[in-house]
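Hi R.,

Here are the chain sequences for the assembly we discussed:
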Amino acid sequence: MDDPVVGSKVAREPAMTDVARLAGVSHQTVSRVLNGHPNVREQTRLRVRAAIAELGYRPNKAARALVTGRTQLIGVVAANSTLYGPASLLAAFELAAGEAGFAVSLKRVRVLDRTSIAEAVEHHRDQRVAGIVVIAPTASANEALADVPAGVPLVTVDGDPERATAMVTVDQHAGAFEATRHLLDAGHRTVWHVSGPPDWFDAMGRVRGWQDALAAAGAEVPPLVAADWSAASGYRSGQMLARMPEVTAVFTANDHLALGLLRAMSERGRKVPDEVSVVGFDDVPEAAYFIPPLTTVRPDFDAVARETLGLLLAQVDEGEVADPKRTVPPTLVSRDSVAPPPA
Amino acid sequence: MDDPVVGSKVAREPAMTDVARLAGVSHQTVSRVLNGHPNVREQTRLRVRAAIAELGYRPNKAARALVTGRTQLIGVVAANSTLYGPASLLAAFELAAGEAGFAVSLKRVRVLDRTSIAEAVEHHRDQRVAGIVVIAPTASANEALADVPAGVPLVTVDGDPERATAMVTVDQHAGAFEATRHLLDAGHRTVWHVSGPPDWFDAMGRVRGWQDALAAAGAEVPPLVAADWSAASGYRSGQMLARMPEVTAVFTANDHLALGLLRAMSERGRKVPDEVSVVGFDDVPEAAYFIPPLTTVRPDFDAVARETLGLLLAQVDEGEVADPKRTVPPTLVSRDSVAPPPA
DNA sequence: CCCGGTAGTGTTATCGCTAACAATCAGGCC
DNA sequence: GGCCTGATTGTTAGCGATAACACTACCGGG
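And here is the predicted structure of the full complex:
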């Protein structure tokens, strides 16, 4: 007897016709009220609203999507990564999209290769999403985007700055430039760089920013120390750099590399910042509690998210956008890991 | 002239009838092929598949959802947090769901309060999701779940262990118990604990595991040091504990607390692990590169994700599940932050 | 007084799919 | 041969919304 039955049929979710019947109007009028159509008498509108409330009616999005051919859904493709940058970006975007009334359908891929990304994009197209956002920080992801047919609103985040398509990125070059100049300004003759993986655009942008800052200052460009994003590789790089007395300043491509480097320096007895200065990138929440507190570059993920959403919605509404590339400058956060070089 | 037109009508996405016409069958037969219905002749099946491929046909999910009343969508509600635990859980779940053929619709909320969660759940119900997963690690989130009407398949992750509803959690108690016992086994007379925020179930479970391990060993229970999850509060707690010579072993509720604590110990000249042993919780990727490498407890997020998905799908298929609570035990990862107490 | 315009509302067709049932055909059995 | 059975396929009727158009008052102007 617990089954919700009315008469002989099982109760189902109320539909527009149920509301219409209760309010004594046609279902079309209910639709007009729901969509804010102007030509509905105030009194009718109120009756319909009351009926909606009474029945607990909720519009069926599938039906609407079927007839309009659109959804209020944004598809996001991201790597299965908990790296701080991508994860923060994702969270910021989901929040921004949600607050703009869009649902976010997320597809994680194990690897950012052509097949996976193509599949994820197809998956979203199957769902008839309004637009797609791809977090594509690697070269392989970039290639995959070539396969995406035009006509689908699509914004790339953290992708290849050379691409002509719609894209939003953190200004890696400016951040790295500023980090490097900050170290030079402290009096260091040059700055070493521990870089991220070479197939990441973020990493490459930071390398170029570093190089350009050195060049602008007329400083010697030391060999690049290639690593990945992990504390482990930062540690290995640090073990090498710690043995070289001429190394007095290091800019690492992210904070976790810096963490590993700090440990290597500490093990070798090289004091930071007295003997070696270090600047990171990302400003992870715990960076202020490294030993010593880390000077680093903070990207504005909220701004990237807002720009991304704006660009995507502009494409949805207008089809094409004139200048579809946005760059968001990061800021330097100064803490205790930078000092003048030893005399 | 660039518009894709055929005859006098603008080309639209091919529908089932287009496939049917090309294959010389009825649209229903196409539907049967798509849904793997048994009674279709092999030859017909092949003709239909060929037509599908030729047209690049993709089924319209909105139409299917409309008629079946179901979707292949799972709604997830999560806080807008980049804390390692919740973020990893989320990523693992999204991947698992995706590989099981489900799309994930994600709704982030700024705060885990009653209103936000209720709204997020409504949002998902509007979308007619097949089921909902709420990552509800705090007391406030737990309250909000009381408002969710029965009948919607729903699984809580990291929620209140006392709740009777479907839930999957990391076994906080077991992890904390093991961490504490590991320190006692090393010879420490007792173990101090720096806890997470008291409104988090994770934090409370870890506190109880710690207490029970001390009680089981007949060790004295020192006062609890209450903190939040941040390295900052770990640092503050560490500044206090570093001054107390009787403190030789500390279990922190997560790795970032441990990081802050390590820095405070280092500043005060208390050597880890020679004078003070430390165990964390989470096994963040960089924990192996703390100074010293951190012994910690590693939750199995992939297993939690799998259990969650399994439980949710079981509810979708069977309505009710007999024993809807799953606990996933974590494992201790031993590194260099634990040693016997100083003589 | 008739006409056209406009506000407000209803009627009907349609989106693309699945469910239910009907129709057809072949083979086996009496 | 006629009938039953099962495999295969087609026909029809919705699902719940929007779009297009039709209809009814009511208004003012000629």
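Residues 15-17, 27-28, 31, 35, 59-68 of chain B lie near DNA strand C (CB under 10 Å from a C1'). Chain B is about 45% helix and 15% strand.

Let me know if anything looks off.

Best,
T.
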